[in-house]
Write a structure and sequence with these properties.
CATH topology of chain B: Glutaconate Coenzyme A-transferase
Strand order of the largest sheet of chain A: 9-7-6-8-10
Oligomer: heterodimer
Helix content of chain A: 25-40%
Largest interface: A-B, 51 and 52 residues
Mean pLDDT of chain A: 96
Structural class of chain B: alpha/beta
Number of strands of chain A: 10
Order of helices and strands of chain B: HEHEEHEHEEEEEHEEEEHH
Number of domains of chain B: 1
Distance between the termini of chain B: 31 Å
Structural class of chain A: alpha/beta
Largest sheet of chain B: 9 strands, mixed
CATH architecture of chain B: 3-Layer(aba) Sandwich
Chain lengths: 248, 249
């Protein structure tokens, strides 16, 4: 949905992605208008599968020009692809595809907690968060809470981004809404459904953009505009992980 | 008493039955999220589920989920890793069966979820997601589709998730579950296995834009059992995925 919103607002020239849509309904109408009609502007689309995006980021994270894979062989995604080419196995095995690195200028990562140095603890599914943070030239960490560094050091295996990679750390509770954050927020599905409906037309999208972006001067106004949703979605139960003994 | 159930519930049950006990399953979005939980709760208690966001579970999600990243699918998981970790297991050959949906299909089991001009003008679809990877790398795949003539095409415009092709190294489409029936794809053509109760061969032929094979006296898809329905209604209490008009699309 976030992809669709940026595209529909005319802020995107090129998309490198495996999937652009809305978890509520499939199609992203902003993406469709841009791709099909060039409205509000033409976009260049570089189609991937999830794994080739993952490998492209991983290659950059590893400082490599590419990584080899078997995925996608026989399909159209990899045919004539600007970033995916056939490559021989130097050890004589079957031929492979090479997926060239993607090195983002900026990665923006939301985590549960971080310290002032940007050492970040994240739990739940990791997706491509770690690869993105490692690959990017600059990484911005937003978090539910800034915690004392002792909290981070108490459980170093939970640190997915070491602070020296972090360009800036921002305490912004609810920063991933309407998506969920394990232990802090449940998913709010209504905004996905509402956006899916309203973004069917350019006028509808413009109304959404005014209501949720242009007419709201700051983050505080945005949270107020969400009304009671923030209270309704907050996770109040506690199910704590067992402690791990790090004594030397 | 005659149990009543929706078409979607029947599809979830058919999907769940494709999972054999002890298998490693790559669980797709939408109906397979329920199908995996159903199999776990009934005939396949030892199955293990991999989700492309990095979650590995050996129990159904603890409550209703819209997506695999929702908190009830993470609490109680056996592992929460990254996308590349579970995709690596898939590439290594550790996955027995994967589930994929598509907007268009052809007789070789090629799926298109990228773009189509089938209805005249260009329509952009969301893209592969993990579909192309599951199609390439799983031991076998189960495809889930709306059964409509515009979706069942002699040749898809774009092969997002490859079906059968010469030189394929592993796997390929095994079963197709649609709103009308269950079909076998292993032979590189579409052979009906069962039709959902009340569906006629003629109806299926009219809804399919290519030749498919339906034997005389083809059996009906086995109705959901009481246990299966009980699980679905607990996991999807408001019928979001399985109601008569599936809100989940």
């Amino acid at each position: 949905m976030a992809f669709d919103q940026l595209i529909a607002a005319g802020t995107v020239a090129k998309v490198v992605a495996a999937w652009v849509g809305n978890v509520a309904g499939g199609s992203g109408y902003g993406f469709r208008r841009a791709y099909e009609q060039g409205v509000p502007r033409r976009i260049v689309m570089e189609d991937h599968s999830n794994f080739t995006v993952g490998l492209a980021l991983k290659a950059a994270a590893m400082g490599l020009p590419y990584l080899p894979t078997f995925t996608g062989i026989g399909g159209d995604i990899v045919r004539g692809h600007p970033r995916i080419r056939p490559v021989d196995d130097p050890f004589g095995g079957p031929s492979l595809l090479a997926v060239a690195a993607v090195k983002p200028d900026v990665a923006i990562i939301h985590v549960q907690r971080a310290d002032r140095e940007g050492n970040a603890h994240l739990w739940g599914n990791l997706g491509l968060t770690v690869e993105a943070a490692f690959a990017a030239r600059r990484t911005i960490v937003t978090c539910e809470e800034i915690v004392p560094e002792e909290v981070i050091r108490s459980d170093p295996n939970r640190t997915v981004i070491p602070g020296f990679l972090t360009t800036a750390v921002v305490e912004e509770p609810g920063g991933a809404l309407p998506s969920s954050v394990q232990g802090y927020w449940r998913r709010d599905f209504e905004p996905f459904l509402r956006y899916h409906q309203i973004s069917r037309t350019p006028d509808g999208f413009q109304a959404w953009l005014r209501e949720w972006v242009l007419d709201l001067p700051d983050r505080q106004a945005y949270l107020q505009h969400m009304g009671d949703a923030t209270e309704r979605l907050r996770v109040r139960d506690r199910r704590l992980a067992a402690a791990a003994n790090f004594a030397p | 008493m005659i149990a009543t159930y929706t078409r979607r519930e029947l599809m979830v049950v058919a999907a769940g039955r494709e999972i054999r006990d002890g298998e490693v399953v790559f669980v797709g979005m939408r109906l397979p999220l329920l199908g995996f939980g159903l199999a776990k709760a009934t005939h396949a208690p030892n199955a293990v589920g991999l989700f492309e966001n990095g979650v590995i579970r050996d129990r159904p999600a603890e409550a209703f989920i819209y997506t695999m990243g929702d908190p009830p699918n993470i609490a109680g998981a056996v592992a929460c890793l990254g996308l590349n970790d579970v995709m690596s297991l898939l590439q290594q050959g550790r996955v027995d069966v994967g589930f994929i949906g598509g907007a268009e299909i052809d007789p070789l089991g090629n799926l298109n979820t990228t773009r189509t001009s089938g209805s005249g003008s260009l329509v952009r679809l969301p893209g592969s997601g993990g579909g192309g990877d599951i199609a390439s790398l799983a031991g076998r795949t189960v495809l889930i589709m709306e059964h409509e003539p515009r979706r069942f095409r002699e040749r898809v415009d774009y092969v997002t998730s490859p079906g059968h092709f010469p030189g394929r190294r592993r796997g390929g489409p095994a079963t197709l579950i649609t709103t009308l029936g269950v079909f076998d794809l292993t032979g590189g053509r579409v052979q009906a296995v069962t039709l959902h109760p009340g569906v006629t061969p003629e109806q299926v032929r009219q809804a399919t834009g290519f030749e498919l094979s339906i034997d005389e006296g083809i059996p009906a898809t086995m109705a959901p059992s009481a246990d299966e329905l009980a699980y679905i209604r607990k996991a999807d209490p408001d019928g979001f995925w399985t109601g008569d008009t599936m809100k989940g699309g």
